[in-house]
Specification:
By secondary structure, the protein is of the alpha+beta class. 47% of the residues lie in helices and 22% in strands. The chain has ten helices and nine strands.
Length: 299
């Protein structure tokens, strides 16, 4: 029989120390009988065996009980009974027996107390979190962290025109900032008695401002001036949009081949500015401004 089986069998009675004490006395009696048979088996031998058994069992029993204080005997017995219940399949009964008797009070009690304290903390409203529970605050924080926000420095610019072809590589190499107002509708207010009416006048054209650097050869300056010359020619005439129209495509939150929102607009070159200064050793910047062509024309 294994140690687990022995504990289970002893725990069924709820008095494991009593069973142990009985086993000790039984063993002492057995030793006494052996001593009596050595003495010849007569009346004297019987007296010797009884005296030896009594003296031995009492001595060993006293030694065992002296090492187990009375306050712990009930706990040990209850623990054995709890283990026996669990071994027989009654898990809930074994746990209740252990809790009711205080078995493992310091370990189980501290564990349950810590769990209860943690439960009260995570489930109770806390003013440090604005009056909500820490569980709710954790959920809100995780939701904010998991949100895939668009970053302003991740964008891809595509620039195409009939005059210069695809110039996207050069613009993406030197472009630093883009400002674009994609939608604006202007209107006015008309008074009607004590009320006022909203009257719409027109949809404002899209204006795009692009800040870029440039190389020493002035590649982007030459590109822009070529498009300005196609709009207002030297002979005093104006060109046709098919020649100077520029299609801009801005992909927001662009990472690799994955892009977020995409905005397209059909524009023409309007103006550009260059600021030079000997006060600092800095890179030259171009401020380019483009305005939308006819709104009924799609890029």
């Amino acid at each position: 029989m294994s140690l687990f089986d022995s504990i289970s069998a002893a725990g069924e009675s709820g008095n494991i120390l009593g069973r142990a004490d009985g086993a000790i006395r039984s063993g002492a009696a057995s030793l006494g009988k052996q001593a009596g048979s050595i003495a010849g088996g007569g009346k004297l031998a019987s007296a010797v065996s009884q005296a030896g058994a009594s003296m031995g069992s009492q001595a060993v029993s006293r030694a065992m009980n002296s090492h187990i204080p009375p306050s712990m005997r009930n706990t040990v017995n209850a623990g054995a009974e709890s283990l026996s219940q669990i071994a027989s399949g009654d898990v809930e009964g074994g746990i209740l027996t252990a809790l009711e008797s205080g078995f493992g009070g310091e370990a189980i009690g501290n564990l349950l107390g810590a769990q209860a304290s943690q439960g009260r903390y995570w489930g109770g409203a806390n003013m440090l979190y604005g009056g909500i529970t820490p569980t709710e605050a954790k959920r809100i924080f995780q939701e904010a962290v998991d949100a895939k926000r668009a970053k302003k420095n991740l964008f891809l610019l595509t620039v195409q025109s009939a005059l210069a072809g695809d110039f996207s590589h050069e613009f993406n190499l030197f472009c630093t900032d883009i400002e674009r107002g994609p939608s604006e509708v202007s209107g006015g207010k008309v008074r009607a008695g004590s009320a006022q009416l909203d009257t719409l006048t027109q949809a404002e054209p899209v204006v795009m401002r692009i800040t870029t650097m440039d190389d020493r050869a002035g590649t982007l300056k030459r590109w822009f001036e070529t498009h300005i010359a196609a709009v207002a020619q030297q002979d005093g005439s104006f060109g046709v949009p098919a020649d100077y129209a520029i299609v801009f495509t801005v992909q927001h939150a662009f990472v690799g081949d994955v892009g977020g929102f995409t905005g397209r607009v059909l524009c023409r070159a309007q103006s550009y500015e260059v600021s030079l200064s000997r006060r600092e050793d800095a890179l030259e910047e171009l401020q380019m401004t483009f305005t939308q062509l006819d709104s009924f024309m799609s890029p």
